[in-house]
Amino acid sequence: MQATTIDVGPPTGKEETIALAEILGLAFDYPVADLTPRMEQVGLENVRVVRADGRVAGGLWLLPMGQWFGGRSVPTVGISMVGVAPEYRGRGAAAQLIKATVQGLHAEGVALSTLYPATQPLYRSAGYEQAGNYYELRMPTKSIRVRDRRATVRLAGDADRPAIEAAYRAYARRSNGTLDRSEFLWQRVREPRGHEARGYVAEVDGRIEGYLYVFNKPGKTGGFNLQLTDLVALTERAGLGLLTFLSSHQSMARQVRWHGHPADPILLLLAEQAHTSRLDISWMVRVVDVPAALATRGYPAACNGEIHFSVRDDLIPTNHGPFVLKVTEGKAEVAPGGRAALEVDIRALASLYTGYMTAEALAATGRLSGSDLDVATASAIFAGPSPWMPDMF
């Protein structure tokens, strides 16, 4: 049976909330009893359902947060728990859910949207594109061989949370793509699904210079692995102290595993290259509001330049057209108009915006065009660390 009408909006009451929980529980093999309280944590105002002929056919969660680019936090909404009932799949419900959600975010003034795709064509049809990476790192505990106790590593308490969160922000703002976490995301760090992580801080003269959260994950052949849900070291002393702490578990813990960056500076403190890194998945970004996203982002402090470009966006008309981006000492001004020296579609703009792809690389795909000088200028303006994030949502 083909649905005749599809509409998207917040759940209208308890009945629709329960219906969505049942659909998401089936889609993600997640206990329905656990989903309802999690939706309440997210906030029902941040839940969207798609209705087909008046019946709930699926939905998603919105996670308001920020995302660091060029040292500035850009207002971002994460898209999570996208699910559609089996009987409505392949009938356009998911596509209309995502497109209506993006249009709603634009109306609310949101600059960016970020998500982890289960399938790329669905999200590409709404203007999302690959824009950063999520890695898993592993190293044998016995390979660490660090003994440096200049930093005191101790169990963290509730009173340490403000300092821990400040340390994370100082660490995250150095990168591109890392999240400016909401309380919901911090809870996932401290209470990963089915576990409760223990927090430890690396302290020097009463100042927290690093921390980690960890739980024991049973190994397949005995013993256990140390699963880190977060690892931050702002100084050499903190990094060496945390590595010393991890090394002290080697009698039982076989590996240390965490989601980080393959070029994290803490890895330079190891004597040998005993760690491995693996790309788990590339996350996607949608530039929801072109002028807002460009103006809010930070840029290289030594960068001064101007690019004129035209954006193609079939979903949001106000994003479609020419713009001028002028960057002076890392700060941007954005105005409509200009000579449209570069032409780029909204998906390619996402990959350029985050620094995931250079303008030259995008030109090779046919989704960005312009003179060699204009293309090189765009690459210089958006240059920065390779985008990544340690959070899955």
How would you describe what is shown here?
With 393 residues, the chain is α+β, with helices and mostly antiparallel strands. It folds into 3 domains: 6-127, Gcn5-related N-acetyltransferase (GNAT) (Aminopeptidase), CATH 3.40.630; 135-281, Gcn5-related N-acetyltransferase (GNAT) (Aminopeptidase), CATH 3.40.630; 289-381, SCP2 sterol-binding domain (Nonspecific Lipid-transfer Protein, Chain A), CATH 3.30.1050. It is 28% helix and 35% strand. The strands form 2 sheets. Strands 1, 2, 3, 4, 5, 6, 7, 8, 9, 10, 11, 12 and 13 form a 13-stranded mixed beta sheet that branches. A 5-stranded mixed beta sheet has the order 16-15-14-17-18. Helix 1 (14-28) packs across helix 2 (32-42). The longest helix is centred in the first third of the chain and has 15 residues, at 14-28. The chain is globular. The two termini are 34 Å apart. The mean pLDDT is 95.
Brief sketch in words of this structure:
The chain has 393 residues and is α+β, with helices and mostly antiparallel strands. Helices cover 28% and strands 35% of the residues.
